[in-house]
Amino acid sequence: AGEGVLTLVDSLVMGVVVLVVMSTQISWQLTVLALIPMPLMAIAIKYYGDQLHQRFKSAQAAFSSLNDQAQESMTSIRM
Q1: Which residues lie closer than 8 Å to 64 by C-beta, 6 or more apart?
Q2: pLDDT per residue over 6-32, tens digit each?
Q3: What's the predicted TM-score (pTM) here?
Q4: Average per-residue pLDDT in the chain?
Q5: Co-location of 55 and 23 in the same domain
Q6: Is the dihedral of CA 25, 28, 33, 34 positive or negative?
Q7: Which residues lie in coiled coils (predicted)?
Q8: Are the C-beta atoms of 23 and 31 separated by less than 8 Å?
Q9: Which of 3, 11, 23, 62 would be 28's cystine partner, CB 3.0–4.6 Å?
């Protein structure tokens, strides 16, 4: 958990620094324009992330079933 917190803090600090530099050194109008798609991206990431998670769970369940069948087949073979 410690590494995740460090990554989160690092990302937040870097994001703030980038926004400050963009708005002061480049153009505040361009910074605002660059931030406009962010909410849409967040919604898309949430939506597709949930779909991906469900499909991953489904694939893992299928692999588990296949593994169970293979194990049952192997244990029923006599040497």
Answers
A1: none
A2: 999 999 999 999 999 999 999 999 999
A3: 0.55
A4: 92
A5: no
A6: positive
A7: none
A8: yes
A9: 23
